[in-house]
Amino acid sequence: MSTEASRTGPTGPAPGALLLCRAEPGSVAPAAHLLRERMLLTRAGDDWSVLVPEGRPWLHGDEPVDRVLGGWATALAVGAPWPVLALWWDANHSGCTLASGFRRSVGYEWLAGGTPVGEDEAMRTLAARLGLDPVLDMQSLEQLTKPDSAADARARLRGLLAVLTRAGVALPPGLTPGEPADRLREAARAQPDARAIESTGWRETVRAELDVVEAGPLGPWLPWVGGPQARLLALAQVAAGLPLAAWGLRRRSGGWITAGALLLAHGALGWAYDLGRPRD
User: Does residue 79 share a domain with residue 181?
Assistant: First the structure.
C-alpha cells in the first residue's frame, strides 16, 4: 500500500492525525500517558474520545505519519478493552488504522486524488470490530472503496467520519481531517474538557501502565487487585506447577522443571499477596 517516499513534499497540506478511542476521556488518559508524547485529549461524542498529537515524530523526523499512528494505535489498544481508530493524512495519502486488543490491526488508504488502494476485507473487518450496522453502514463504507472522481483523500476520511457518527462519534468543531497539527491542537484546546497529555517520569509511567492493565479484561485476575478471580488464578498456577515440576524431575528436563517452578512461584506469590492484604 504505502511507499517509503517522502510524505511531506514541498506542496500540499501539512500532515496531521487524530486518534479516536471508544472510551471516556478518563479511561483514555492513563493509556495515552504511556505513549510519552505531547497530546491533547477531549471528548468526541458519546463514549468516544479523541487524542490530538503535537506531531513532532513526522514533522521533525523521518518517520511517515501513517507508520507512527499505526504504532500509537496498537500501543493504546493492546492493554485496553476499547478499540482505537487512527486517522492520518499528508500531501500524498490519507488513511485509517484500527487497533483492537491483541488482534492484528487493519487499515485502509487513499491516494491524494481519492483513489482507493486498500482491500475491501479491511473495511468489513473495521465495521465488525466497531460494531457498525452490517448492512446500512457497510454499504456506506463500500462506497469509500470505489472510484469517485469527485472525492479526494480527505473527502474519503470525512465520509468515514460520517459513517462513524451513527456509532456515536461527534468530533468537536475544527477537528477536521486535512487540517495541520497546530490548527487541530488549537481547536482541541478550545474545548472546555480538554486536558494535556505530557511526557512523565518512569514512576508515573509504570503507575499509568498498571492502571490500564487493571481496567482491561485481565484486571480482575491480577494478584494486587484481589478478589475471587485472582485467588482462582493463583490456585490454578500452583495446581499446574506441581505436576509440571514433578514430571520434569522424573524426566530430568530442565525446561519443564523451570516452567513448573515459575508457575509455583507465581501462584505462591499470588496467594501470599492475597493473604497479606487487608480485608474490608
Answer: yes
Stretch among 65-79, 84-98, 219-233 having the lowest mean pLDDT: 219-233
- Containing structural domain, residue 141: 16-209
Co-location of 261 and 136 in the same domain = no
pLDDT digits (tens, 9 = 90+) for 176-191: 998 888 899 999 999 9
10 located within any domain: no
pTM value is 0.70
Name, in order, each residue with C-beta under 8 angstroms of 117's C-beta and a sequence gap of 6 or more: 1, 109, 110, 111
Single out the residue of 195, 155, 182 nearest to residue 59, CA to CA: 182
Would residue 6 count as lying in a domain?
Answer: no
| 32 in Cβ contact with 41 (< 8 Å) | yes
